[in-house]
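Action item from last meeting closed. Structure (1716 res):
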């Protein structure tokens, strides 16, 4: 078959090919499947694909709680990390991508919380690391890790929950933390005590020395060494045989009952047949009752109580004979000694038996609140059997645990909050009274004030709790319709009635309460300001529209310049009227006069002036001229135009102000005006001239000759003044006068009802009325018809009615608890209980008034008997002996006598003797008295005596004696041995106590305390502080405690010294004195008379503050305080008024012409300008000096026929801006025309404008803000700051505002702003609290404190709060009594030398002063009767304990040592503390050398303590005396030598291993056998390589940036072998200068330093040589006579000063050099 076997020809061959191809495909597919399967599996047969999951998403859902769901991503992944199709992974193992979850909501935060477990034991880090080894050397401690369990829990029942719930609110707390495992602490023992004396006086004995344990072994440290060392001793040979035997008693056996006693009791009971009592019984009822009472008493005295089962048994002990070698020999070898008792009575021990625990009581917390502390619940158990004998005592009968209320309907806890009453009225007098009590009663005050309120505590959710309780109560009784679906949840549908809450005790509210006072503001009323009266108007009709009658009024008015508070109704009258006749409503007013026109058309002479008239109304307004048609017009005015030779007069001045406002029969008003002569006429005309004129012209021309020749004559001076009457109306002035507006009342026409609300909102509109009357000035009320009706004010106006406010009071508080107090006799003291309520809203606007009763009082309901319990003891039963069958073998024993035990009954009673449960006495009474005691039944041969009587009384202290007696009883009175008074004394005598007491003061004086009884504290539960001034200063008392001692210097009650415990001394608390200033001075005049200036007022210091008074404001150097405010002066307030010019005084006179150069004068005065014109003259400085008119002028008096001009008119104003191209002019006109040929001068005067000379620009200037200005009636509060606007000329002068207003300059400033003057509020303090309990219940140093707090801090300049907010006073000194043990007695073994015995101690009452420094003294136990019987808090009193007295030769354990001082287990320098511990130990004491093998093991025990000291332990060594060996020991850091504690390294070596030995100081022998130096010293070697000395190592310390010291200091080295980075307590880098290397040779730097020193030496020598050479030159330069033999030269220096130079070296120079 060749290679082409399958390629056959024809069709068959082709078919085979197709079949072969299909088979091949199948084969390939199978092979691929096999390969794929091999590829999808790993070598171990596992799949290479696995399911991967993402983190769970957030829990989603519509409801809170477990109904949520969360999802996560799930995908298929390859082992190499890439993601593939899901089909590649096993679908059966696909994880779920959804799960249910707990959807957390915000309110779950109060239900769940993290529960933190306790930290586990600290595990070393090395133990957690794989294969890590623990460090071989422990340095301070080993790092470790400790873990704990943390889980989320449900708070209510502490069941675990998912962590995701708690993680929703707070991250999961850490599960592990770093910790430190301390190094092993070896046992540390003290030094040995001195050797004891030899245990034998002869022969061979032992000496012992012991030590005690100071620190126990801790953390795996080495165990304690032997605490005892023994040393044999041999005092000397024994001269007689030693006593080798001694009796030894063993311990008592346990108590047991005799076996025969129950059998005998049963037989005795069986022998008594029934019916005996009935047979011999008594039938009498009275006798039967008496017998029954006796049986009851006997039963109480017997132990028939179910709580005690006392059985008396016996116990025995062994008595043996012991040899000194420790062996026991036959007992007869120790006889004939008296054997101790081997049997005694005892009480069978019974353990305390209790019932099972009862059910838990209710939780003290019966409400739910997450922030409130948990409650507690208790449960108890009862005593079935008390412990008897040495039985186990009863454990606590009750236990308490924390709890939370359970159940679905737990009400919320009561929450409390502060509430306040409404604020009281704002009162300024409260502030004034704080500053000065005399100012507290001022009225009409406004501005800043103080208002107060009361603060009280209420239960905030009382209504909610009441509602829930009522709702649940209804559900319990089936009154709630559960089938009805409520429209809203119950808690959301609650509606509360708004009522005042009941006050509770203030202590229930936490945090500081709201302020009880606050600043307030009373708006200051704005006073009405009016302008001055205007001028009287014309006589006009009252009503121009109705001009009936001929009566009219003249009226004058004034305006309101400042609108007052409450409207213009509070202003004075604004219109006054005067009745007049012939009234008219319209009149002509002259506006101007035309020029004078001479008559007949002449150029000069008499003429007329036509007036220009305007028709005006009675108000002065221009009206139509036709209205004045009925009024005649003013006639033309006569005038005169002077001719050229006439006298020329000036124009009339304006009429002056009327001198009177009205006229009467005696007084008339006057006005005047004046004019002056401007030019005189031509002169006088002679008779000859007149005659000539008469001849030539005729007599008709004679009257006119003055005009022709001399001109018109000038009038006389009286003609230059003209007067007229003015204000001719009578002084009968009427006006309307208004009264104050009445209260706002209801409008009868209105239908609105004024209801009651709680706020000041208006309820409706009302009406106010006032009285309006007509008043005649200076007379009073007149009929209304006298006043004009037009200006009559209204009498009714609308107003807003405020709603009525009813009084609101709180409900009464709960009754205060009734304190149960009892007097000394045990009777209940009756007390009162109180309740109160508060007014939280005062009535107003006619609301309901407050009730009269705000406090209630009633008697407390108290029990008849004071609660309390006590133990009652009953009679002791008969003494029970050990059964005779057990005692009869004892030598000398008798059947009916000997030691025994007796018992008694104890019951619980109330204080009144009523029977009570024993459990009450266990809780509230003192320790239960003993029910068992040992007793002795005397034998027949014993002497029997009665008990001692009480001591007889002493007649006086310290005088005489007192005795007590006893007597023999029975047969003892006849026995001789009993009559021996030395053995059986029948009386005892002692000196009477010397009760002398000495009182003396102790301690410091207390604070000065003011006496009680001032304004007291409110006793109600609200505790509101009354708003009154508390007494803070004055006379008080300070106290010093008194101490009383008896004659033995023991502290006793102070009543023994007839003292109440204090020394009182009057003292003074100085009252604070405030800074006292004077009243404000008057305001000064405004500093400027024109424009804005300032005015000042001041106060000066009258008294400085002291004792915490209000501080002064900032004063200047002369102790004054100023207030400066801007002021505005009207520039026209003061004006210059010039009188007419005087007559000309011509200096160059032409008597014929009356003309020429002359002078005119006039008087110029500064006058106050009023609305009616200048009135009163004032000082000239008030007027502007620049505007002062001339008082004199020189000019030329015009001659006749000259032109006469009037005075120049005012200059025209220069236009702005001012430039030289502009000019100003003034004009005049001719009054008299000149003659022909003469001309008038220019009637126009012109001058150029020049800036700041005659041309000015103007601008506004704003002043600074004033201080805050208050109303005159205010002391503080809201005020106004003002500033002024001033018009300033370009030359800096202030001018009238009209100049700036005419230029329409912009005003962009605010002139007034509001401000506040801080009110001076004094610090307000609360009342003093009650005195605290004494800081100590007894002793000398007790103090009582009381505190107060700041209610209102001081504000402004108020009186500051005092620095001390507390006071103290000493407590009465009381002796400190306490129960205290005495020292243990020696171990007592009855009648023998050694064995088991007892030691005893007493419990005594001690007294001390409580200081801890003084000693204690024993006193009578009665003084401690009120104390609980305990010692240092331990109630288990142990007065007897077993002990062992070693027999001679016995090896035994010593008693326990005292507890060692507390030692802290710490790492010094690391700040790590593992607590403190103290230890005590018992060492072994041996007496015989041969008994050492029988010694017991030593013992120690430890206990934790507090406040231990942290110590270090170091090795110390020193050379022994006369030896080369070193003594090495361990020393604690406090200098105590110890054993153990030093680090586990080799101590400093012994010098014996070094050759030669290390004898140099500070040296030691190293482990290598070389002498080395201690820390801080370096080795200095000898040439042969041996240690020569130990030299201190210098340290060069270079400070770094962290050092606080900037200097470089040298100190000794601590350890030169350690790098500086591990030096404890060092900062910076430290360089150690080591001169020697490790091989002992000098280092190279030492040679370098030596070379440098040599070079420096050469340099110094060279400088000395040069100095000597210069000295020689100087000497040679000096003259021979100027030098002396000592080498001193003197020469003259600058400024003739002598200079002296002494050259010591020059003294040695050769003489030749000097000459040279």
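Sequence:
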């Amino acid at each position: 078959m060749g290679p082409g076997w399958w390629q056959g020809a024809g069709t068959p061959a082709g078919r085979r090919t197709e079949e072969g191809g299909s088979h091949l495909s199948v084969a390939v597919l199978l092979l691929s499947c096999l390969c794929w399967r091999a590829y999808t599996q790993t070598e171990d047969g596992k799949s290479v694909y696995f399911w991967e999951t993402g983190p769970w998403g957030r829990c989603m859902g519509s409801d809170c709680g477990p109904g949520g769901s969360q999802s996560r991503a799930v995908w298929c992944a390859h082992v190499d990390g890439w993601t593939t199709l899901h089909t590649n992974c096993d679908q059966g193992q696909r994880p779920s991508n959804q799960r249910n979850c707990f959807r957390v909501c915000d309110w779950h935060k109060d239900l769940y919380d993290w529960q933190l477990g306790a930290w586990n034991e600290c595990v070393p880090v090395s133990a957690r690391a794989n294969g890590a080894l623990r460090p071989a050397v422990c340095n301070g401690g080993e790092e470790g890790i400790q873990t704990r369990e943390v889980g989320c829990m449900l708070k209510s029942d502490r069941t675990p929950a998912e962590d995701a719930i708690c993680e929703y609110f707070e991250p999961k707390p850490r599960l592990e933390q770093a910790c430190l495992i301390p190094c092993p602490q070896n046992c540390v023992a003290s030094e040995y005590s001195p050797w004891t004396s030899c245990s034998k006086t002869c022969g061979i004995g032992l000496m012992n020395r012991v030590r005690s344990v100071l620190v126990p072994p801790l953390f795996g440290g080495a165990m304690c060494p032997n605490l005892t060392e023994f040393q044999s001793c041999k005092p000397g040979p024994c001269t007689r045989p030693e006593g080798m035997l001694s009796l030894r008693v063993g311990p008592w056996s346990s108590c047991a009952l005799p076996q025969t006693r129950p059998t005998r009791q049963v037989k005795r009971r069986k022998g008594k047949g029934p019916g005996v009592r009935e047979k011999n019984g008594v039938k009498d009822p009275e006798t039967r009752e008496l017998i029954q009472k006796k049986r009851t008493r006997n039963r109480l005295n017997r132990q028939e109580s179910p709580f005690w089962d006392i059985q008396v048994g016996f116990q025995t002990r062994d008595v043996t004979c012991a040899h000194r070698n420790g062996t026991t020999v036959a007992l007869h070898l120790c006889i004939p000694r008296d054997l101790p008792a081997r049997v005694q009575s005892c009480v069978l021990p019974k353990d305390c038996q209790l019932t099972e625990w009862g059910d838990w009581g209710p939780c003290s917390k019966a409400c739910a609140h997450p922030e409130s502390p948990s409650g507690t619940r208790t449960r108890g158990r009862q005593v079935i059997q008390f412990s008897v004998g040495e039985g186990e005592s009863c454990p606590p009968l009750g236990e308490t645990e924390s709890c939370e209320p359970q159940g679905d309907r737990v009400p919320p806890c009561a929450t409390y909050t502060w509430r306040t009453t409404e604020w009281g009225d704002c009162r300024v007098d409260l502030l004034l009274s704080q500053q000065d009590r005399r100012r507290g009663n001022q009225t009409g005050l406004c501005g800043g004030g103080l208002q107060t309120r009361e603060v009280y505590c209420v239960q905030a959710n009382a209504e909610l709790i009441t509602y829930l309780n009522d709702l649940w109560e209804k559900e319990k009784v089936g009154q709630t319709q559960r089938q009805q679906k409520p429209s809203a949840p119950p808690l959301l549908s609650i509606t509360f009635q708004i009522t005042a809450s009941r006050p509770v005790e203030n202590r229930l509210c936490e945090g500081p309460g709201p302020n009880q006072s606050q600043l307030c503001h009373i708006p200051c009323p704005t006073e009405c300001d009016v302008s001055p009266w205007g001028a009287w108007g014309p006589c006009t009709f009252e009503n121009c529209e109705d001009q009936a009658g001929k009566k009219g009024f003249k009226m004058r008015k004034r305006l309101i310049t400042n609108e007052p508070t409450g409207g213009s109704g509070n202003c004075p009258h604004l219109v006054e009227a005067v009745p007049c006749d012939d009234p008219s409503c319209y009149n002509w007013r002259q506006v101007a006069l035309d020029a004078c026109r001479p008559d007949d058309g002449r150029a000069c002479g008499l003429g007329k002036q036509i007036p220009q008239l305007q028709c005006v109304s009675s108000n002065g307004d221009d009206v139509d001229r036709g209205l004045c048609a009925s009024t005649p017009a003013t006639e033309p005015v006569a005038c005169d135009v002077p001719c050229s030779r006439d006298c020329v007069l000036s124009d009339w001045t304006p009429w002056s102000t009327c001198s009177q406002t009205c006229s009467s029969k005696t007084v008339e008003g006057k006005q005047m005006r004046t004019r002056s002569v401007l030019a005189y006429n031509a002169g006088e005309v002679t008779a000859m001239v007149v005659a000539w004129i008469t001849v030539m012209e005729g007599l008709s021309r004679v009257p006119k000759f003055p005009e022709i020749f001399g001109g018109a004559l000038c009038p006389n001076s009286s003609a230059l003044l003209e007067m007229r009457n003015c204000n001719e109306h009578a002084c009968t002035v009427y006006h309307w006068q208004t009264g104050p507006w009445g209260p706002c009342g209801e409008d009868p026409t209105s239908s609105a009802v004024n209801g009651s609300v709680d706020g000041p909102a208006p309820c409706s509109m009302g009406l106010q009325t006032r009285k309006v009357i007509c008043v005649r000035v200076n007379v009073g009320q007149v009929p209304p018809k006298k006043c004009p009706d037009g200006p009559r004010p209204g009498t009714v106006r609308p107003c807003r009615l405020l709603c009525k406010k009813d009084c609101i009071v709180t409900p009464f508080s709960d009754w205060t608890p009734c304190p149960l107090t009892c007097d000394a006799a045990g009777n209940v003291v009756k007390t009162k209980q109180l309740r109160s309520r508060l007014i939280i809203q005062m009535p107003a606007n006619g609301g309901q008034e407050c009730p009269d009763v705000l406090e209630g009082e009633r008697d407390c309901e108290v029990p008849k008997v004071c609660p309390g319990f006590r133990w009652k003891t009953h009679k002791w039963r008969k003494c029970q002996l050990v059964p005779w069958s057990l005692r009869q073998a004892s030598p000398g024993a008798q059947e009916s006598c000997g030691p025994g035990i007796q018992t008694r009954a104890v019951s619980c009673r109330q204080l009144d003797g009523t029977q009570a449960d024993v459990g009450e006495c266990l809780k509230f009474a003192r320790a239960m008295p003993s029910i068992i005691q040992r007793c002795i039944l005397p034998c027949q041969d014993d002497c029997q005596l009665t008990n001692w009587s009480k001591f007889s009384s002493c007649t006086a202290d310290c005088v005489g004696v007192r005795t007590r007696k006893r007597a023999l009883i029975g047969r003892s009175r006849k026995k001789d041995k009993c009559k021996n008074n030395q053995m059986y004394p029948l009386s005892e005598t002692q000196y009477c106590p010397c009760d002398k007491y000495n009182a003396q003061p102790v301690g410091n004086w207390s604070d000065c305390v003011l006496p009680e009884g001032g304004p007291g504290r409110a006793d109600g539960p609200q505790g509101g502080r009354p708003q009154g001034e508390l007494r803070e200063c004055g006379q008080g008392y300070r106290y010093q405690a008194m101490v009383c001692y008896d004659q033995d210097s023991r502290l006793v009650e102070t009543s023994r010294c007839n003292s109440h415990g204090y020394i009182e001394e009057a003292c003074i608390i100085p009252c604070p004195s405030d800074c006292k200033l004077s009243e404000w001075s008057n305001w000064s005049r405004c500093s400027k008379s024109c424009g804005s200036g300032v005015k000042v007022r001041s106060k000066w210091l009258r008294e400085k503050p002291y004792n915490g008074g209000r501080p002064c404001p900032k004063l200047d150097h002369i102790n004054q305080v100023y207030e400066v405010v801007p002021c505005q002066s009207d520039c026209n307030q003061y004006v210059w008024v010039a009188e007419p010019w005087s007559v000309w005084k011509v200096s160059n006179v032409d008597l014929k012409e009356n003309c020429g150069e002359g002078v005119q004068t006039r008087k110029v005065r500064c006058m106050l300008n009023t609305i009616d014109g200048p009135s009163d003259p004032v000082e000239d400085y008030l007027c502007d000096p620049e505007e002062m008119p001339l008082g004199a002028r020189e000019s030329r008096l015009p001659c006749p026929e000259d032109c006469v001009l009037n005075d120049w008119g005012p200059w025209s104003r220069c236009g702005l801006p001012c430039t030289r191209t502009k000019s100003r002019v003034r004009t005049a006109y001719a009054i008299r025309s000149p003659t022909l040929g003469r001309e008038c001068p220019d009637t126009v005067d012109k001058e150029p404008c020049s800036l700041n000379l005659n041309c000015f620009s103007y601008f506004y200037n704003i002043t600074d803000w004033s201080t805050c200005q208050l109303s005159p009636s205010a002391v503080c509060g809201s005020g106004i700051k003002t500033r002024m606007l001033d018009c300033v000329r370009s030359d800096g002068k202030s001018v009238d505002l009209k100049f700036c207003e005419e230029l329409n300059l912009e005003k962009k400033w605010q002139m007034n702003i509001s401000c506040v003057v801080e009110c001076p509020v004094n610090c307000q303090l609360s009342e003093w609290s009650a005195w605290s309990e004494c800081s100590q219940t007894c002793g000398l140093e007790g103090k009582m404190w009381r505190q107060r707090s700041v209610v209102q801090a001081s504000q402004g300049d108020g009186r500051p709060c005092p620095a001390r907010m507390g006071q103290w006073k000493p407590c009465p000194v009381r002796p400190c009594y306490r129960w205290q043990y005495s020292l243990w007695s020696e171990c007592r073994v009855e009648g023998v030398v050694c064995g088991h015995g007892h030691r005893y101690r007493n419990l005594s009452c001690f007294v001390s002063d409580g200081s801890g420094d003084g000693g204690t003294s024993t006193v009578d136990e009665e003084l401690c009767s009120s104390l609980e019987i305990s010692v240092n808090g331990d109630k288990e009193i142990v007065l007897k304990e077993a002990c062992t007295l070693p027999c001679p030769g016995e090896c035994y354990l010593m008693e326990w040592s005292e507890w060692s001082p507390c030692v802290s287990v710490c790492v010094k320098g690391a700040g790590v503390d593992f607590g403190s511990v103290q230890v005590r130990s018992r060492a072994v004491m041996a007496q015989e050398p041969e008994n050492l093998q029988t010694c017991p093991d030593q013992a120690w025990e430890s206990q934790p303590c507090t406040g231990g000291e942290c110590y270090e332990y170091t090795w110390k060594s020193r050379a022994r005396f006369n030896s080369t060996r070193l003594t090495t020991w361990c020393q604690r850091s406090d200098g105590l030598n110890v054993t153990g504690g030093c680090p586990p390294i080799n101590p400093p070596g012994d010098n014996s291993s070094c050759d030669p030995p290390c004898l140099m100081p500070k040296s030691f022998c190293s482990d290598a056998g070389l002498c080395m130096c201690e820390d801080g010293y370096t080795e200095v070697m000898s040439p042969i390589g041996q240690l020569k000395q130990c030299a201190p190592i210098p340290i060069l310390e270079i400070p770094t940036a962290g050092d606080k010291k900037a200097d470089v200091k040298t100190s000794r080295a601590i350890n030169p072998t350690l790098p500086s980075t591990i030096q404890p307590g060092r900062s910076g880098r430290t360089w150690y200068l080591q001169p020697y290397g490790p091989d002992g040779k000098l280092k190279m730097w030492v040679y370098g330093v030596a070379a440098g020193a040599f070079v420096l030496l050469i340099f110094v020598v060279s400088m000395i040589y040069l100095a000597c050479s210069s000295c020689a030159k100087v000497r040679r330069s000096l003259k021979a006579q100027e030098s002396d033999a000592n080498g001193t030269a003197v020469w003259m220096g600058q400024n003739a000063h002598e200079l002296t130079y002494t050259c010591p070296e020059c003294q040695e120079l050769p003489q030749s050099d000097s000459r040279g």
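Note appended to the action item: The chain has a mean pLDDT of 78.
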